Amino acid sequence: MLVVSLGFEELNIRSIMEEYHGRRDTRFIMSYPTSPSVERRQWAMLRQLLPADHGISLAENVRPIAGWDAESVYMTLSEWKHTYPEMVLAPFGIKTHTLGLALFAIEHNFGMYYTQPKSYHPSYTEGSGTVFCYLVKWHRVVAYDRHLVYP
Predict the structure, then answer these.
(1) Cβ atoms of 72 and 65 closer than 8 Å
(2) Across 2-132, where does the E strand assignment appear?
(3) How confident is the model over 75-84, as pLDDT tens digits?
(4) Cis link prior to 33 (omega < 30° from 0)?
(5) What domains, with CATH codes, occur in the chain?
(6) Closest residue by Cα to residue 31 from 134, 125, 122, 121
(7) Residue range 39-97, pLDDT digits in tens
(8) Do 29 and 67 form a contact (C-beta atoms < 8 A)?
(9) Are 3 and 29 in contact (CB under 8 A)?
(10) Which terminus of the chain has fewer CB atoms gathered within 10 Å of its CB, N or C?
């Protein structure tokens, strides 16, 4: 299964999706709730990426996750892993979603596509809001293993 965290820039998502078109289920993670302009940009990006004959159920394959919630991204991937034990992750959305995807990929040794843009639009982060801090390790325990130590 291909999991794409959507942002505002296409980067090389289209070529990745073409590689998986018709062979695997594709899921999308989008940030929500957010401003109407951000939502419009994300949906416009999704429409731009999907061919007219995509056959993907948007009701089932698009998961809105709060932009600050890296843990929900991780838990969503854990849920999807029950049905699709092999995943390829494409974190092209916001950094907190990328963190959740990266921790999951590290734990399960899954591949990730990532493209660093050469430049950003001057208003790329407009409306992004408050900055948060995430601890990925606490007392030598990686975030995804904390349930083993701190039930």
Answers:
(1) yes
(2) 2-5, 26-31, 62-65, 88-91, 111-112
(3) 999 999 999 9
(4) yes
(5) 2-149 (3.40.50)
(6) 125
(7) 888 888 888 888 777 777 888 889 999 988 888 999 999 999 999 999 999 998 888 89
(8) no
(9) yes
(10) C
Expressed in angstroms, the distance from the first to the final Cα of the chain is: 30
17 or 147, which is more confident: 17
Pair 35, 127: CB distance under 8 Å: yes
Report pLDDT for 117.
67
Q: What is the pLDDT of residues 100-131, one digit of tens each?
A: 999 999 989 999 988 776 777 777 667 666 76
Amino acid letter at 129?
G
In one-letter notation, the amino acid at residue 5 is S
Looking at residue 91, its amino acid is: P
What is the b/e burial string over 70-90, where b = at least 16 CB atoms within 10 angstroms of the residue's CB? bbbbbebbeebeeeeeebbbb
